[in-house]
Amino acid sequence: MSLLEVKGLGIAFSGRPVVEGLDLTLAPSERLGVIGESGSGKSLTALAIAGLLPDTAERTGTILFEGSPLPEDEATMARLRGKRIGMVFQEPMSALNPLMQVGEQIAEAIFLSGDRVGYGTQVLALLDEVGLEPQHRRRYPHELSGGQRQRVMIAMALASRPDLLIADEPTSALDLVTQRQVLDLLDRLARNRRMALLFISHDLKAVAALCPRIMVMQAGRVVEAGPREAILGHPRERYTRMLVGAARFRIHTLANAPMGDPLFTARQISRRFESPSLLFLPRRAGTLAVDAVSLTLRRAESVALVGPSGCGKSTLARIIVGLDRATDGTMQFDRTVYHGSDLPGALRPDISLVFQDPFGSFNPRLRIGASVSEPLRLLPDLDEAARRRRVADMVEAVGLSPDMLSRYPHQFSGGQRQRFAIARALVTRPRLVVLDEPVSALDVSVRGEVLALLHRLRADFGLTYLVISHDLDMVRALADRVLVMSAGRIVEEGRPAKLFEKPEHEQTRALLAARLPEL
Amino acid sequence: MIPYVLKRLAGFVATLLAAAAVTFLLLDALPGDPARFILGINASPEAVQALRLQLGLEAPPLERFIRWIGGMLQGDFGLSYTQGAPVSALIAERLAVTFPLALAAMVISIAIGLPLGILAARRRGSLADTGLMMLAQLGVAVPNFWFGMLLVLLFSVTLRWLPPGGFVPWDENAWGAIRSLVLPSFALALPQAAILARVMRTALVDVQSADYIRTARAKGLTMGEAVWRHGVRNALLPVLTILGLQFAFLVAGTIIVENVFYLPGLGRLIFTAISERDLILVRGAIIVLVVGVTLTMLVVDLLYGLVDPRLRVRRASR
Amino acid sequence: MSIRDHWAGRALRHPSFVIGLLGTLAFIGLALLSAVWTPHVVDRVNIAARFAPLFGDYLLGTDHLGRDIASMLMRGALTSLTVAAVAVGIGLVIGVPLGLAAAIVGGPFEWLILRVNDFLFAFPALIVAVLITTLFGPGATNAMLAIGIFNIPVFARVARGGALSLKSLDYVAAARLAGLSSLAIARKHLLPNIASLVIVQATIQLSLGILAEAGLSYVGLGTQPPGTSLGLMLRDAQSIFLLHPHLAMVPGLAIMFIVVSLNLAGDGLRDLIDPRLRKEGLPRVAA
Amino acid sequence: MQFPIKTVLYAAVASLVLIGAAQAQRTDIRIGVVLEPPALDPTAGAAEAIDIVVYQNIFEGLTRVDETGAVQPGLATDWTISEDGLTYTFNLAEGVTFHDGTPFSAEDVVFTFERILADDSVNAQKALYAPIESVTAIDAATVEIVLERPSGMFLFDIGRGDAVIVSPATADTNATDPVGTGPFRFVQWNRGSRIQLARYEEYWGELPALTEASYHFIGDTAAGINALLAEEVDGFNNFASESIALFEADPRFKVLVGTTEGEIIMATNNRQPPFDDLRVRQALAHAIDRQALIDGVSNGFGVPIGSHFAPHHPYYVDLTGTYPHDLEAARALLAEAGFPDGFSTAMKLPPVNYARLGGQILASQFAEIGVTVELINVEWAQWLTDVLTNKDYDLSIVAHVEPFDIGIYADPDYYFGYDDADFQAIISELSTTTDDARRRELAVAAQTRLAEQAVNGFLYQLPQIGVWNAKVEGQWVDSPIEGVVLRDIRWVD
Question: Which keywords does this chain's UniProt record carry (chain B) (predicted)?
Fold first, then answer.
């Protein structure tokens, strides 16, 4: 008798269907992966199974848990959820009560699952099982990192020894290294506790790594379902094929790295952050985000700066483009020496930055054309006509049409916006372009196109790239040389191929280990 | 917690000093001369001058300001020109009316506002919800001196349950004092209760859609239990912010309500003292009011720090 | 522009906003009309026609000086609205830049502005009104000043809150990279994006301004005769309430009507323009 | 706990007694007043609110003024005046004590007058007592006062609140803790709320009917109405006129309409053009419709006056007919004075009802003869500085509440700016004669002169509208002098 059986599930909001005709079965301790892009209805399906749909949702079809339908009345459904189903959600930042210590929140889960006595020791056991130290239980959520918070969520889900664990995008908000650790943890827990696992994600590699059976969803419908080997090996539906293809990057490194003369050099750059001290109290020792970093970028070279989140790579990038100031050490661009925000105005058109989040990089109240042409203020001698022509050229260069310029940012997709962001960065014809996680916020299918675009632009305009990322696969597709950073220092350097075969520094090994197996 | 508290205290002291300086300067610039006012229409110029000297009005402003601040720190607010009594005694007498009135109004507004807000949020979208919110809209829109008068007409003139105004001193008859504060504190509390109800409802409705509530439900709590155990405390944060601001509005309201119910409060004291140019009394009274308001804001700030650990505990390492 | 048609579309499905907006526009229309025409000459004293009954030859009767209540109501509404509007203007013109500057510059300058805010806040509007009126004599202009001063910290607080949440966004960093000065960034990027926040607060402060004017008039510090305002009409009628109740009912209900309309319009506006606004649970600051 | 039988019994008995007592006559009274006095020493402050509480209640003078304005014996039971009218010899009452027990003697009278006449004296009416040359105690019960020049009003002036007899021991603290010889002693002052007095059992004269009296300060008219209707207050000595109809129609109350010593005038700056031209002042006088003003400002309560004199005074003569309400005559006079199409001027109004409302009505009346009046509202303190001291005004509206104060028109640099030799001669003779017939002739001449010269717009006499519980008797209907005298007030069935 199957643990979970969903027949003809339909979810609609005021008449508009979001999920239609969904069938799904899950045997005890069996694992099913659900893959689909944002808006495919996969999260709503998970919420429906747990009886957590918002009250405005209209649900049709049947959901049987161990043969009996989900109880209608809220109290019994809540008790069932508490005892038999564990859930882990996507946003670790807001999924925990900010005003309550994490230990208490775990204890509450244990208390609710029935055993009233001795839950103190159980909390410690759970913390240990998810890889957290005992003293973490007295911390508040904001005092823990994203990964640690996700582990607390998992501990809470396991408190009632559930038979079914539903994980809805548990790792997509984490950086790669932590992501891999959490996935391994889920794998180990599901196996040890013989729990059924419903794993939902938009990352095909994560789903493939964890679940023997995969179900592909698109726009509220099940496109294809079946064993992992069948879905990955010879996908029947076109959509599935596109998904699998996009997950494999075509690796195309340049034949020979052009050896131009040095364009930019950094000498012993450091950045110390003072902790916020009171007006009168003496300043307390601050943290050193960037520690004596030296590097050189040659003309038309593409260098990647990789490392786990918090290693100081973004801070270094901000200093290089002049958004921040180094506490000591100097930088030289062409013949000019500067320390960061004291970058002279004449040089600003030569260095530009592409931001990570396409949604936050455009002023919602300004037409996209106005935002793209904003950097041209740095070139006062350009007249109006030259200004407009240059913007039009750049927009066409990134594969979009100039007549889109009069529209507003919220009318474009993430991918299109990132292309506009690149156009804005290139409009002043810079020589050095710093790219901060250029594709990590995009859907998998769009990433490939943008990377290809970046590759072409570099060749056409002879640009020098400095790419900041923690995703080694993306780096290998774009960079001639890789610098690995850890705790503010560059610990290893080399060509991607060499680093991938013979990593020397253990940080590089950790990054490599975090990569999910090839499909 | 310590740096958070120290930071707030520094702000508190700075605000007070600025308030004292501005009050002193503003009042010094007031036209009209207290001595002339005391002696009336037919008094001779010599008599007026004699009184000015007697009251020490001739000394240079800075010296008087320093003397005033120094005196206040030791609790001596100086002598009132018109009534000859120590200002601190006069203020204490009036504070025995205004402080309990403001406090009662605050308690009433919380006692009425919060439960109604929670009720409206729990039955969101129902008739009760829209009804309560319409009531809250009206509550804010009624001028409190008009509402006060309607209360008096109903409860004092027709029903004779409560006095129409005036104040029986505490030491003479505590019960009488309380009775004379009932209607004024309700008149004062109405708009604040309405605002509190709206803010509480909005806060609770927002909380219901928060992620940690969904997690709590996932742990096995019903929506009601989740909101009660996790939601209410988080919903208190915006409510606390409003409470902090409300004391300032209550103080403004007391001045009007004291007129409607002819209560011997601090507000009316300031009024009469200003029209009689009893500047030293006005200064003292204003400072007491300003201290009251800033003190409440400080207390609410500290409460905020207590309720919300994010303010007082260091952020996670990067 | 696509924001407007999308916005107007949703507006119709928001009943309370429509009611509020219609009420406010009707009120403002009547008030403006009074500047050019009123049923009778507003301040002509005609003792013989005192206390004329409702619906007689004077639609809403006459007051203790024989002045036509309907005309007084219209002119009174104009004064109350102008006082509240100018007070909101003062709050906007001074408060918003202060708030923006505090958010952008930060550090000790922000601490100073916050202290000035607290200080301005600690002074109850009425005390400020009393001080101003004794300095410059009572009257509508001083009521504007007193209520305006009270609005400054409100708008500063709203502007700072809004700007702080935007300051860390990438397009602000992009603007800085493009060489824009802090002032240019505030004007071009921050101000337009907190506009909806400020507009909503403005409607609410407008309604509170009308109430505050009524309060000031009640204690004799607001509009002075021969001028008239809703608050003044209410005060004059209050002592003869038992003899002529309608004299107090008319201005009282008018005040309640305009305040409720403004609040409904304000809340409706908030939901329509920026649903995200409501989620932030912006505490409505009420005087 | 064992049931407290005893306590319950006592309670029952006590309540019975109480109910019984309720039938017996009440001997306490609660009087509402609009203004709270700034202090309680009548000899060191001019505010009328002080006298309302203390005059003839806590403090007494050598003489006292009765309800008709006539002078009656006070602490001086009888007195003789020398032929030349310069020496007054007063025989003082026996067995009189101050409320703190110290006996009253001639020494106290000497101390009181020396204190008034001292250089650093802060007495508001010091000028009235200037003619006193010496005050000597002949013996413990006799005092002789010698004047430099005869003063017709002397006996009246020493009967005013400003000349009540104070004891040296308590003179300095009377402001907050008044000690006098009157029938009521001071009990308690809760500032902003009320003042309580109690009957002085060792009073030397006839004991008053009331044993307790309290004054309650209620500034807001509507609040006052509610206090009366809710019977929290037994009466107002002088209440706002707008809701009187309410109390006339209610059997629980009675309304006593009288006059006060307050002449409401439109003060005119006689030195400020165009008001220095008699024809302009006459034109304004013709334009004023007194009855419409009285109806508008005090709902018909108030007696029109043609000159600066109280109608209830024996010497009063009705001069309202000097310049009857005649718009044509007013326009003709204005044309004659060179203002065919009128002029514009300003009127400064203190913060009182009769001024603020009166200003609006006069402004609309003057508008009909082309005179446009801008109304400027000022605070009292500002009025005293601008109008009274600096004479920086065109027109103003104010009430002069000092009794028998027609003499102020004789002072050329008083704020009216009126300097007329004939009038000054009449006043100087009036102030030195004591013969009644001659004083009446002079008073009439003075009133007529002011009326003809139209020195100010003489509007109406400030009414005294008393609203009392119907069962209270003995209140004064008129108030010839500032004060609410409790001596004769009592409850009847």
Answer: Cell membrane, Membrane, Transmembrane, Transmembrane helix, Transport
Chain C neighbors of B137, CB-CB under 8 A? 260, 263-264
| Other beta carbons less than 10 A from residue C8's beta carbon | 10
Interface contact C125, partner B, CB < 8 A: yes
Burial of D24 (0-12, 13-18, 19+ CB in 10 A): exposed
Residues, chain D: 493
Q: Which domain holds residue D307?
A: 262-462
Give dist(CA C14, CA A284) in Å, integer.
54
* Domain C3-34+67-277 is found in CATH 3.30.70.1400: no
d(CA A407, CA B109): 49
Shortest Cα distance, chain C CAs vs residue B35, angstroms:
17
Pick the residue of B142, B145, B146 with the most C CBs within 10 A to test the interface with C by mutation.
B146
* Cα distance between residue D209 and residue D215, in whole Å: 17
Enumerate the β-bridge partners of residue D349. D377
Q: Based on the number of CB atoms within 10 Å of its own CB, is A305 exposed (0-12), middle (13-18) or buried (19 or more)?
A: buried
Rg (CA), chain A: 25
What phi, psi does A107 have (nearest 5°)? -60, -40
Note whether D282 and D377 are same-domain residues: yes
CA distance A495 to A507: 16
Tens digit of pLDDT at every position of chain B (318 positions): 677 788 788 888 888 888 888 888 877 777 667 777 766 666 677 777 777 777 667 777 787 788 888 888 888 887 777 777 788 888 888 889 999 999 999 999 999 999 999 888 888 878 888 888 889 989 989 888 889 888 988 898 888 899 888 888 888 888 989 999 999 999 999 999 998 998 888 888 888 888 889 889 888 888 888 888 888 888 888 888 888 777 777 877 888 888 888 888 888 888 888 777 788 888 888 888 888 888 888 888 888 888 888 777 655 443
Show the tokens assigned to A197.
């696992």
Enter the tokens of residue D337: 């004075």
Q: What is the number of other CB atoms lying within 10 angstroms of the CB of residue C227?
A: 18
Quote the tokens at residue C207: 């309604």
Contact D39, B84 (CB under 8 A): yes
Q: Are A216 and A202 in contact (CB under 8 A)?
A: no
Question: What is the ipTM, given to two decimal places?
Answer: 0.77
Of D398, D392, D397, D399, nearest in space to D417 by CA: D392
Last residue of one domain, picked from the residues B273, B289, B306: B273
- Look up residue A495 and give its amino acid: R
Residues of B in contact with C131 (CB under 8 A): 26-27, 30, 274
Could C239 and D296 be called an inter-chain contact, meaning their C-beta atoms sit closer than 8 Å? Answer: no
Q: Cis before residue C226, ω within 30 degrees of 0?
A: yes
Amino acid occupying residue D254: K
Partner B contacted by A76 (CB < 8 A)? no
Q: Which amino acid is residue D9, in one-letter code?
A: L
Is residue A168 classed as helix, strand or coil in its secondary structure?
strand
Range of the domain at B37: 32-76
Same domain membership, residue B117 and residue B49:
no
What pTM does this model have?
0.80
B241 within some domain: yes
